Structures are given as C-alpha cells and as structure tokens.
Amino acid sequence: MARRITSFGVAFFFIGIVHGWGTSSFDSLTSEDLVTRKSVYRTPAFTLTPGEVSSKFYRVEFPKGHVGVRGFDAEVVDEAGNPVSLFEVYLHHWLTFNLYVKKTEKEAFLNEGYYGSNNPSTRFVGNSGLCRDGPGSTSWGLGSETRHTNTTIPPPYAIEIGNSENIPDGYEEMWEFNVHAIDTRGVADRPGCTECRCNLYGVVNDERGKPLPKDYIGGLECCYDGTKCRLKPGFESTKRTLYMQYTIRWIEWSENMVPVKKYVIDVTNTGSGCKIEYNTPTCSLSGFPTDCIDTRETTASLPEDSILIYAAAHQHVGARGASLYGANGKEICRSMPAYGFGSEAGNEAGYVVGMGACYPEPGSVKISSKDVLRMQSNYSTFRGRTGVMGLFNILVASDTYSMISFKKSDSVNLGYGIQELLNDYFLIIGFVGGIAAFGLGRYYQFRKQQSEGYQAVFK
Ligand SMILES: *[C@@H]1O[C@H](CO)[C@@H](O)[C@H](O)[C@H]1NC(C)=O
Ligand SMILES: *[C@@H]1O[C@H](CO)[C@@H](O)[C@H](O)[C@H]1NC(C)=O
C-alpha cells in the first residue's frame, strides 16, 4: 500500500511545514435543511508581505464520521473574513490530501506533520488514481478559479469519506491542506510573478538547494514557500494575515448514496509520468490568429467500467479551454475558462475566475475500461507562458452501481433541492461557450487598456 510520492509531491511534502490544526470552524444546519450540512472551516493563519510566497501544509478539520461530500468550495479571506482579491493575493493552488495515521503516533503526527516520504505511521490515501504522483492524488484542489467553479456533486452521488471499513485497524483518517498563495501587491511584473518566472524570484536552486536546469525558466520550483517576487522600486506595504476558508457540503452516509471516484488526467502525462506544469510558446504573428493556440494532448484509460458524473478542467491564465473525448472520438466534456472583467474579488479582470463543469445525465456517458480517453488543453500563445497546467478532474461511478442507484435516489433528491436553495447565492459569472468569446473580446480590451497605461492586467 505504500504510495510513491514523487516530484511535485516531494517538493511540497519535503518541507512539510505544518502549523497545527485549523483554528476555527462553524457548522450550519438550519431547521429546513434536514439533509445536507454545510461546515465552514479555516486553515490556521498565514502571513504575506508584498511579493512573498506562502506554500505551507496544514492539518485541517473535516466533517467527522462516515459522510458523503457533495461540494467543496474555498477562498482566501482576511482576518475580518472578507474575500481577498486575486489582484492582491494570487491563489496559485490549494490541495487537500487524506492520510491514515496510526493512532499511537497521532500526537507526533500532529506536531511534526506528514513529511511525505517515509513516515511509517502514515499511509497516504489520495484519490483513485491515474496520476497518483502530484496533484493527481488530491481529493480536492483548484486554483484561482475556485470562486466560480461548481464543485457540487448531484445526488445520489458523493465522495465517501470516513468509512471505517476502509481505514486499517489502529489508524485514523486525517486531512492535510496545502495552500500556495503569492502576494502580488506592488510586484514588478504581475503575470511573471504569478507564472513563477525564476528570474523575477531570483531563484537558481530548488527548495532543497539543488541547482535547477538552465532551461527551467519558470514554474513551481521557483516559487516555493518563502521566496519573493521582485517588487516595483520603492514599493512598501504591510504584512497581511490571511486564511483559507473552505466550505464543505456533506451528508451522513446512507445506503441511498452512491460513491464516486475521482481521477485526474494531466495533459503533461505523455508516457513518462505527470509533469504537472508546462510552458507554452509565443506564436509567430504571421499565422495570426489561427496559429496562436497551443494545443496539448494526452490519453488515459480508467481501470474499470464507469459512468461519468462530473468533469471540469483546471487551467491557468491564457487558458482557452480543455476537452475530453471518449470512445470513437466523441467529445464528452468541454470545460471553458471564465475570465473576470471587474475589480472585485471573484471577478478580477484578466484572471481565470471559474472553469465550466460538465454534468452529463448520469448513465448517458459510459466509459469502458477498454476506452482510450483523449484530453486536449488549449492556451492562447500571444504571449509565452511558464508553469501552466492542463488537468481534467473527473468523477465517475462504477457502472454496476449506477443501475441500482436510480431506483433509490428519490429520497435524496428531496434534500438536494433544499440544499441547492440554500447554496445558490453565488454570483455566477458564467461558463461555457459564449463566455469564452466574451472573454476573448474583453481580452482585446485589456490589451488596449494596458497599452494605454491603465490598470495592469494580464495580456
Ligand atoms: C452546480 O451544478 C449543479 C448540477 O448541475 C446545479 O444544480 C447547480 O445549480 C450548480 N450550482 C451553481 C452554483 O451553479
Ligand atoms: C483546442 O484546439 C483545437 C485545435 O488545435 C481544437 O480542435 C479544439 O476544438 C480546441 N478545444 C477547445 C476546448 O476549444
């Protein structure tokens, strides 16, 4: 069962600075909401000064007991609980991992953390596979698009956690949270800092002190915890105290529910493992505009026959969408970025503030273990970029399960309706299709504004 955690995993886990338990939480269960609970938690506080990167690991709270998770939303907030704009704090990513920890070693674990590699008293659990080293192993995880990416899992499906039958004797299930945030107040080059360009961070060695290859010009290896991006000359500001606030929507597990498995397809996996990040070139203007898209592709197969319940991509600024194709080349999900166009948190101009999610009618998209899935990730190449990503997060149910579940789902649906009523307060900027076109239009406007010396936004 020992899981190998390489590259990305080691990079993060190696320092594994753990700052203790989540410091605050509250549970809401209103009298009308008899089924779905909503628990709001915060990670311990972290601080940032202009230009600085924080990438720490926290042991955090999760709903206790055998439950099904139906939604997981998160955002960076300040001490007063106000949402913090991506203009000030760029949320590069957040990730959650579950571990089984030996009960007898729990205290040590609480103090020292996982430290990744070879702590025999912890067992890494993660998700159901494909890209198990790196972000592919996370149970939940997103980036700047967190505020407007729908994570709701439709009933009767849910991610099952805390099932004592799966937890080895003498172990307990625990959760860790990694938050990678960059304070971009006053930085010299905002796109460059968010893309972790090594020259802007003055980084030549990775966080273990090993020299980076000469051709490594940007990506996570250059913006590890404690590094600092170049500021505009003379810029000064105060240290901020921040939290990651996360809201888990969950339900007590019952036999009416159908567990889903999570798989992550990483477009950088072209046979030799998941590299997580890649760089995109700058297009030559002669081919404008058709040549100004970089398309990467990979293939993957699921280990068992499944039905698709949910799919959404993860991409960075410059994203032009991602697609998943099933057997016979049919597109089964197209996930498009939503770009912000304003100044408030959740609508930051030029940033990817949401990714469209696909909800095929359960049972309508079957994926056989023999099928070869193909994934494409597109980026605009008007500008070359470093450290971009192309992931597809998919949730599937086992094909045999699905047949049983349809008969049983009625009672759960009732609760779902109430939950949706309670949770539908988000301002949705919009997803899919037309929005991309809209984003593109805006994008030209940003370029124009920028050349006219307005607010700095991405180009
Ligand atoms: C998320 O998706 C579910 C399932 O399609 C839908 O019912 C719900 O309204 C969506 N929520 C938001 C906030 O868009
Ligand atoms: C990505 O680009 C390819 C062409 O390179 C195109 O066929 C495909 O439709 C694009 N996908 C999306 C999601 O726009």
UniProtKB/TrEMBL annotation:
What's this protein's name? Uncharacterized protein
Organism, scientific name: Diphasiastrum complanatum
